[in-house]
Specification:
Radius of gyration of chain A: 24 Å
Distance between the termini of chain C: 16 Å
Number of strands of chain A: 12
Radius of gyration of chain C: 21 Å
Chains: A alpha/beta, B mainly alpha, C mainly alpha
Oligomer: heterotrimer
Shape of chain C: globular
Structural class of chain A: alpha/beta
Order of helices and strands of chain A: HEHEHEHEHEHEHEHEHEHEHHHEE
Helix content of chain A: 40-55%
Order of helices and strands of chain C: HHHHHHHHEEEEEHHHHEHHH
Mean pLDDT of chain C: 81
Helix content of chain C: over 70%
Number of helices of chain C: 15
Largest interface: B-C, 43 and 42 residues
Strand content of chain C: under 5%
Distance between the termini of chain A: 96 Å
Strand content of chain A: 15-25%
Largest sheet of chain C: 2 strands, antiparallel
Strand order of the largest sheet of chain A: 2-1-3-4-5
Chain lengths: 392, 306, 394
């Protein structure tokens, strides 16, 4: 009979339905506090993002091992792919999730510029761990925004001084057209002209550009001493490659964005040799808490290196956890606590936030690429004269 | 603008043109034979480059040092692999849909291209990052009054043109080519004449994909880089080039390839503020050309059954 | 024409209308729980439930009752569906992210409906859907930041700009057919994104901030109070987005059922024959193309205002392909299919985080399978019925 047939099917459907619903039951409540991490976990600069995430995870794990900690911490890591639109999406997702108390965010300045408004809109306190564009903290009056690493201003000032000190006179500047590259261009050009360098030409390139023949051909014509690149590693690799193809014999100078191992992985032969770059903060080994951090990172056995900004991510996460321990898992309370941070201890040294939430990191380290590794300038064979930079 | 600069642009343009022409020839072959647009061509090219890269790693591990030998092995393996892939795609994705509206095949191959691209990005170790393709060609260069004529560019262009001429000869002077042209002209009659239809289709796809692999390796050797997204733009450019020249016509495809490269170069030269505008310029011209001549510069000689 | 069959007794002896209303209520509860579900297991469980439900519909005869309900009690069913949508929005109340997802889905649905008119009805493939969507978004960005144009007009402006730029493409699109016209739209889609990226005036790769929507002085970015409960401000956008989607759906349905729809169908099936019969093929194509673009533009304008930040990277060729996938998955020319496919394509990857990375791969694979084995889509378009209550003798 059709009716009983239907009934059988209905009953079995109902049984299956209730089973599925049982699986969908609500999670049990726990005394856990969620903290967030956002960085580029995939794409061209993923090694930096993964290094930062591992460092933040390390901080959370170490805190969970601490018997004096008041809460159990859970890290939620999201991937912003170094793209502003994706960053906005994941930032919205994290900020609208009331269970996340605060987050350590962003390597890519371009992404951070887009997301600061979201953190403010949803009142979620955050600490930047690697983005260097000054406008992220100075371009707004949001109490939620803080940063433990330095800005690109100091970096470019030191760079200008150092390179003019080496005796170079003329520059061609290539920068990517995101706010990050434009920021580098602005500050470096400003300091360079102050120190007496001459800029022969400035070229903007898109962050996924493949072919630089047009720009490099013009640069070849201009014949500068140094080619400066303000942008991230994938493009730096391509430019360096194509510079060599066109026979441009200028010194290649980069910014903190190229201080990564991927720079060497992408270049064949000894093209990377002799490139100079700059990074704020001391090298990991020379940081106040550097030895401790490196030992713990090694012990944890992560697959990836902590890269240039891992220590900052670690310090930022620890600061956030300290705040939560002090005032509890409440966004407004944490924001208030963070606005008043003075001489707070961390592995990168004492952290003090100014009225815009910016920490001062005065020290800039110069690096030179030597034998497939970034070596601190003072320790390198270039400083003592055994090897020479291009054109010297 | 001095001769040196002009020469540099010209050299670059010729280089790009050869690459685009190779891709466009593939499109045109597929269309001629089966009346289909296999949009996954660009991503098959990318797969060919990645295969070449993987082979390189393998060859290096085996201890072979001679660059020419390495290039030969890389080319051989990746062309063979890509040709096989092309034939597989024809057999399982294109032939079954022969009777469906042609747009379906365009769509299915478009989606296939996306699937290949994403698969490489997700499953190839560290797929989302660009990979450094080895420098295998001699790096000597001759300085011709202001611009450097590099040995590897000359070799690549020469090889590319040789392949194009070879394909041309294959299609126009051999029995296999005769069979391909017969199938392209009239499927039923060709079958009646005793030509193995399926075999010819598979062979054509294999040839086209093999040419794409060659173009991909060329690209890798020139830029010393392969990345998972290179296929999309190259495929689109190849497609546009084939269309400009008129689908189904090999000479049209070659013409289209060089024309597109020319447009890009003119765009890069004439619009100094951002060379990225060259793509906007080139595609804009393509759209305008389509508006003027809806079936390409060398018009399709076809009739529609009403 | 009179309905010659006797009124059917529906499933389990209940009248079709009751079955229909019951189904709507079930979908509302399901949708509400689905959007709120957090753990992956919960989501997978709900998806399994939905798949089970879909399969059971066909087997247990509920499907026929639903069809009957939609046919004979059209007004009430439509009203119920509308109420159901409102109910989901109110039930979600304070939750920001689920409402954001719901609205995104509704807006993508609107665009897909427009694309469906272009592709499903008229046979014009448009691979630049995301570009027109982006045009609307950029229009709202520019107009909210630099002018004092009332936001409601901005929505209209978004549609107008999309249509205007569409006109630039009209000549090549109308003159070409099949793969030639495909290349025109693909080239345009790529061109659009590249243009936005290199152009500093429109923000370049950094993108632009977009101001909020304001309706008669009420700022959409402020949370509405309802029954003493402070709702998420996304509820405002959800309501407006829902209204937009409903409007688009109604318009598209009317268009499909009218003489114009018939014209579009015949142009798709055979251009030469249509021309022979005296139909103005060019006018039909222009109408369809513009209609689709307007829908995309208006949806884009609202989208921009909702997420308040847009960048060229949101409107790439891959996103256009995603929209085409929605149309293909749902079924060409099928409106309810588009709605279902939009829900699947937009909501599923968001909910199943493991899928998020694989979503392009997954959906392209799905579309390939669809095209091979079920080219008519998930909810195939039904044979055109000239009179709503008439059915051919079975």
């Amino acid at each position: 009979m059709k009716f009983t047939e239907h009934r059988r099917t209905f009953l079995s459907a109902a049984l299956a339905a209730s089973l599925s619903l049982a699986l969908a039951g609500p999670a049990l409540a726990k005394d856990t506090v969620k903290v967030g991490f956002i960085g580029p976990l995939s794409g061209g600069v993923s090694n930096m993002g993964l290094g930062g995430r591992n460092s933040a995870a390390l901080a959370v794990a170490l805190r969970n091992q601490d018997p004096n900690a008041k809460y159990e911490y859970e890290l939620e890591a999201l991937d912003d792919e170094c793209k502003p639109n994706v960053g906005v999406q994941v930032a919205t997702k994290m900020a609208t999730n009331r269970k996340v108390v605060g987050a350590v965010t962003h390597y890519c300045s371009a992404v951070a510029m887009g997301t600061v408004d979201i953190y403010h809109k949803f009142n979620m306190p955050m600490i930047v761990w690697a983005a260097v564009l000054p406008d992220i903290t100075y371009g707004n009056e949001y109490p939620e925004v803080h940063r433990v690493n330095g800005t690109m201003i100091n970096q470019n000032e030191t760079a200008a001084e150092f390179m003019t000190g080496q005796g170079y006179k003329t520059w061609a500047i290539i920068h990517d057209t995101t706010d990050y590259g434009k920021g580098h261009n602005k500050y470096f050009s400003q300091f360079l002209t102050e120190k007496g360098g001459e800029i022969l030409g400035t070229f903007g390139v898109t962050s996924d550009q493949q072919d630089f023949t047009a720009e490099l051909t013009k640069i070849k014509e201009l014949n500068p001493d140094v080619v400066y690149f303000g942008g991230l590693t994938p493009i730096a690799v391509r430019i360096r490659q194509q510079m060599d193809k066109l026979g441009i014999e200028a010194q290649f100078q980069g910014v903190s964005g190229i201080k990564s191992d991927a720079y060497f992985a992408g270049l064949s032969g000894d093209l990377a040799e002799g490139t100079v770059t700059f990074l704020e903060g001391a090298p990991a080994a020379k940081l106040p808490g550097g030895e401790y951090f490196m030992a713990e990172y090694e012990k944890a056995g992560f697959g990836e290196d902590f890269e240039a900004y891992g220590p900052f991510a670690f310090a930022a996460m620890n600061l956030l956890l300290d705040a939560i321990e002090e005032v509890g898992p409440d966004r407004k309370a944490v924001t208030e606590y963070l606005s008043d941070v003075k001489e707070h201890d961390s592995i990168t040294g004492p952290i003090t936030f100014d009225d815009h939430g910016q920490n001062t990191v005065a020290l800039i380290t110069k690096y030179v690429a030597q034998d497939g590794q970034w070596v601190v300038w003072e320790d390198s064979e270039y400083a003592d004269g055994t090897r020479k930079l291009t054109g010297k | 603008m001095d001769i040196g600069l002009l020469g540099q642009y010209l050299a670059n343009g010729v280089m790009l043109g050869t690459m685009y022409a190779l891709v466009a020839v593939g499109f045109t072959l597929f269309f001629g034979v089966l009346d289909v647009i296999k949009f996954s061509h660009g991503d098959v090219l990318m797969l060919g480059s990645f295969t070449g890269f993987t082979v390189y790693i393998g060859v290096l591990a085996m201890g072979i040092e001679n660059p020419w030998l390495m290039i030969a092995v890389i080319l051989l393996v990746s062309i063979a692999a890509t040709a096989a892939l092309g034939a597989l795609i024809a057999r399982y994705l294109v032939l079954p849909l022969k009777s469906a509206p042609p747009l379906n095949i365009l769509l299915i191959t478009l989606m296939l291209g996306t699937a290949i691209r994403e698969a490489v990005r997700l499953f190839y170790p560290d797929g989302s990052n660009p990979k450094a393709f080895p420098v295998l060609l001699p790096t000597a260069s001759v300085d011709l009054g202001g611009f450097a004529l590099r040995a590897d560019s000359v070799i690549l262009v020469g090889a590319g043109i040789a392949v194009i001429i070879g394909l041309n000869l294959l299609i126009n002077r051999t029995r296999l080519g005769l069979a391909i042209r017969a199938v392209a002209q009239d499927e039923e009659t060709a079958k009646i004449m005793g030509i193995n239809y399926t075999m010819i289709v598979l062979v054509t796809f294999a040839i086209g994909s093999g040419a794409a692999a060659f173009a991909g390796i060329m690209n890798g050797l020139y830029y010393n880089e392969v990345n998972f997204g290179m296929g999309l733009l190259l495929g689109l450019i190849g497609f546009s080039a084939a269309i400009i020249g008129g689908l189904g016509n090999i000479y049209g495809a070659i013409l289209g390839g060089f024309l597109f490269a020319g447009l890009q170069t003119v765009g890069a030269v004439a619009l100094p503020f951002a060379s990225a505008y060259k793509d906007v310029f080139a595609f804009g011209v393509v759209i305008a050309l389509m508006a003027w001549k809806p079936t390409g510069l060398i018009a399709e000689r076809s009739s529609d059954r009403v | 024409m009179k309905d010659k069959t006797t009124p059917k007794t529906g499933w389990l002896g209940l009248p079709p209308l009751a079955v229909g209303l019951g189904a709507v209520a079930a979908i509302v509860v399901f949708g509400w729980q689905f959007l709120l579900a957090e753990s992956e297991i919960a989501v997978l469980g709900l998806v399994a439930l939905a798949a089970l439900g879909g399969w059971a519909l066909g087997k247990t005869g509920i499907q026929d009752s639903l069809n009957e309900a939609m046919r004979s009690h059209n007004r009430s069913m439509n009203g119920a569906i509308l109420l159901g949508l409102l109910a989901v929005i109110f039930l979600l109340g304070e939750e920001h992210f689920p409402l954001l997802m719901l609205t995104t889905m509704l807006l993508y649905m609107t665009v897909a409906l427009g694309l469906n008119v272009q592709f499903g009805l008229t046979g014009m493939v448009n691979f630049a859907g995301a570009a027109f969507f982006g045009m609307g978004a950029y229009t709202s960005a520019v107009l909210t930041e630099h002018t004092a144009v009332p936001p409601l007009l901005i929505l209209v402006a978004g549609g107008a700009i999309a249509a205007a730029i569409g006109f630039l493409l009209i000549v090549p699109v109308v003159r070409t057919a099949g793969h030639y016209s495909a290349v025109v739209t693909i080239a345009f889609g790529v061109l659009f994104k590249t243009f936005l990226e290199v152009n500093d005036v429109l923000g370049g790769p950094q993108g632009l901030m977009v101001g909020p929507m304001k309706l008669f002085g009420w700022d959409f970015n402020s949370s509405p109070m309802l029954l003493g409960m402070e709702m998420s401000f996304y509820a405002n956008y959800a309501l407006l987005g829902g209204g937009l989607a409903v409007l688009a759906f109604v318009l598209t349905q009317r268009l499909e059922r009218s003489w114009l729809g018939l014209t579009l169908d015949s142009v798709r099936l055979d251009e030469t024959a249509s021309a022979c019969f005296g139909l103005n093929v060019v006018r039909a194509k222009v109408l369809a193309f513009t209609f689709g673009n307007v829908l995309a533009g208006v949806a884009g304008a609202l989208y921009g205002m909702m997420i308040s930040f847009i960048a060229p990277n949101s409107f790439t060729f891959a996103d256009s392909l995603l929209m085409v996938s929605i149309v293909l998955l749902g079924g060409l020319g099928s409106l309810w299919g588009t709605a279902l496919a939009a829900a699947i394509v937009v909501l599923l990857p968001e909910k199943l985080q493991i899928l998020q990375e694989y979503r392009f791969l997954l959906f392209s694979g799905l579309v390939i399978l669809m095209l091979l084995f079920r080219p008519q889509g998930l909810l195939p378009r039904k044979v055109r019925s000239y009179f709503p209550s008439w059915r051919p003798q079975q």
